[in-house]
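Prompt: Have a read of the protein record below and flag anything odd:
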Amino acid sequence: MSEDPGDPGAGGLPLVSVGMPVYNGANHLAGAIHSVLSQDYKNLEVVVCDNASDDGTPAIASDFAVRDPRVRYIRNPENIGLLPNFRRVRDEARGKYFCWLGHDDLLSDPSYLSATVAHLETHPDVALCHTEICLLKPTGETEVVQFPELAPDRPWAQARRDLFRWPQDWLEMASHGVFRREALVEIPLPEKTRTRRPHVFCWEINMLTALSTRGRIVALSQALRTYRSSPESAARQMGRSVSPFDLWLLDMETKLTLLARAVRCPGSVRERVRLGGTALGNFSRKTFRNRFDHRTAMKMAEEELTILLTAARDRAKLVLQLQEVIEARRSLLVERGETPEPFRTGLTEPLPPSTGPAVKPTRGKLRDFFRPASPSQIRWYAEVNYRITALRRYCERQLQEIDRSDAEAARLLTLL
C-alpha cells in the first residue's frame, strides 16, 4: 500500500474505511464484520470502535483483528456516548471513502462497496452515495426501502429540497451510505442533550443537509445493504426517556435549524428562496414525535391487538366450519362403504389470550404529555407486544390450517 492510506493501493483502488461503532454487540458483531470482509472490493479497512462493552464484543473484535490485518480494534476506556463514538470511528478512519455500519447491520451484497465507490469515482460532484436497503423487521420479514428522491438522474435542486422537508420517512437513512471522507469530516456532529441527557434524535438529517452544501447525495436503485429494525434500538430506548413535550421541542428546533440552513445555503438567490419555502412548509406538517411518543405507541399497539384478536376469532370459526364440511363428506363416503383416511386438524392448542391487560395505565393527558413513559406503561406496552407477536404467529398457523382444510374438503368432494 502507498504511504498515504487514502491513496490507491491494491489494484489501484482507493482505500475504503468501514466504521463500526459498537456497544455490547456480541450477538451480531461477527456477522457484520464478516459481511464487510466478504466484499468483492478488497482495499478496505474495518475500524471497530468499542464503547466499553461488558459482553463478548472485545473478544470477537480482537479475534478478527488478529486474523485479518484489515480489521482495527479500538476500545474506549469508558462509554463516551453514542454520537461521540460515531465521531471517533469516523476520525480514526484513513480511507478516501467512509461509511458507518451498525454492529447489527450487514453489507448483504458483496458488491456494495464496489458499486458505490465506482459511482463516486466517476462522479466527483457526489459527496455521498447510498443504495436501496433491505429492512429486516423483528418478525423476520423483509422489505426493500427505496429512495426515488435521490435517484442519480434526478435534478439535484429538486433532490436537495426533499432533504429539507421534515419530518422524513426514510430519507434520513441516506446517512448509511458511502461518503467522501474529506467532506464528512468538515461536519461537526455535535452531541445534543434533552432533559440533561444526550440524545441522537434528528442528527442524520442535520448532517445530510449540511453535507448537501458540499456535494450531491444520490441513491442507487439496488438493495445492497441490510438494516435491522429493532424495538431496542438506541433511538427507541432514548424515546422512553423523554416526554412528548420534549419531542415537540426537538421537532421545532430541527425545523428552525433547517430554515436557517436553507437561507444561508450557497447558491443562487432563487435556490435559497425555494429551499426556504420548503423549510417554512415544515411548520405546517406533522411533528416527528409520533414515532417515539409513548401515547401513540400504546394506542397503535392496542389497536393492532384488537385487529389480530378479531382476525383470530373469525379464522377459528372458519376452521370449525371447514372441519364440519369435511366430517359431513366423510360420513357420506362411509355410508357408501368407503373408508376415507381420517383428517386431523393441525391446531391443537387453544386460542391465545383473548384480552390484553385489564387496564391501560394512564396518568392524565397533561402528565402524559409532559412526562416520559412510566414504568407501568413500559411494562404494559411490552406485554401487549408479546401478545401481538403470539397472535401473529397463531394467525399465520390458522391460515395454513384453512388452506389445508379447504384442500381436504375439495378432495373429498371429488370422491362423492
Remarks:
- The longest strand covers residues 216-228.
- The radius of gyration is 27 Å.
- The beta strands are 16-22, 44-50, 71-75, 97-100, 126-136, 142-145, 178-180, 192-194, 197-199, 216-228.
- The chain has 13 helices and ten strands.
